[in-house]
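Let us work through a complete example step by step.
Step 1: write down the sequence.
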Amino acid sequence: MKVTPAAVVSVFLLWALLFSIPPAQATGLSLDDAVQAALARSPAVELARLQALQAELNLLAAQLEKDQGKRLEYLEAQRALEEAQSALRAAAAEAAVQAEEAFYNVLRTGELLELFRRAAAQAETQVAIARARHESGMLSRLDLMEVELASERAAARLNNAQREHDAARLALSAMTGHSPLPPLVRPEEPPLEEASLLLRELDWEAAVARALSHHGEIAAARLALQSAQQRLELARLSDAPPVEIRRAEIEVQQAAIRLEEAEARIRQALRDSRDALLAAASERTLREKELALALQRFEVANARYKAGDLSLMDLFAAEDRVMEARLDAATALWDYNVKKARFLRLIDETATKTHNLPSTGGFGLYLHE
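Step 2: predict the structure and record it as C-alpha cells.
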C-alpha cells in the first residue's frame, strides 16, 4: 500500500465535504434510500470513518520514517489502517442491517395497525348488533357483556398498535434524517417457496467463503495474524534474542487460534440464520393456510347463521378467528422478510454492494469494492 502526498491532499480536500442525506423519491422512501440515508447519518459509521482517516495519516507519517530504520512501526501503521478499514466496513454493514430492519418494522407495524383498526371497527359493529338483540330479548345480558368486553379489548389493542407504529416511524425517521417520514415504498413480496428455492440453489460453501471474506471480525483476525507473522519474521531477520523470537512465535499461534474461533462463530451464525429463515418460511406458509381455513369456516358459519342453525355469538367467534388469522399471517410475513434480509446480508447477496460508505478522504472506502 503506497501513500503519496497527493493522497494527503485528497484527505483535506474531501474532509470539507458534508455527507448529505439522500432525498426521498417523489413516490416515497424506498429501502435503498433508507439504507443510504442511515449510512450517511450513522454515528458509528462516522466514528469508524474518522478512525480510518486517522490511520491513513499515521501510515503516511510512518512511511516518511520507514527509511530511517523504523520498518516495524511502518508495518504496525499499515496493519492499523487495514483494521480501521475493516472496522468501517463492519460498522456500515451493521448500520445497513439496522436500517433495513427499521424499514420493515414500519411496514409491519403499519399493516398490523390497519388490521387492528378493522378489528376494532368489527368489534364496534358486533356491539351494536348485540345491543339491538339484547334489547329485543334475543341475547342474554352475559353475552352482551362478553361482546362489549371484546370490543374494549380490541380498542386497547388498537391503541397499543398505534403507539408501536408511531415508535417505529420515529426510529426510522431519526435513523434516516427524514422528518416527517415520507410514505414508504413497499418491496415486492417474495413468493412462499422463495426461501426453499434460494437455499436449494445456493452454493453453501461458496456462500460461507463470501461471508468469511467480508466479515469484519474475520478480517480483523486475519490482519492480527499477518501482523504477528510479520513481527516474527522481523525478529528472526534481526537476530533477536531467542526469548523474543519465542514470544513472537506464541503470538502467531494465539492469532491463528483466534482466527479459527472467529471463523467457527461466523459459520455457526450462518447456519443459525439459515435455520431461522427456513422456520420463518414454514411459519408463513402455515399462517397463510390457517387464514384460508378461517375464511372458509366463516363462510360456513355465516351460511348456518342465516339459516338459523348457528347463534350470533358463534358467528362473532368465527369472525374474530378470521381477524386473528389475518394478524398472525401478517406477522409471519414480516418476520420472514426480516429473517431473509438478515440471511442474505450474511452471505453477501443483497444490494449492499451499491450502498457506498462515506469516504475517509484518502483511499475512498466502500462496503464492497
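Step 3: interpret the result. The chain has a mean pLDDT of 82.
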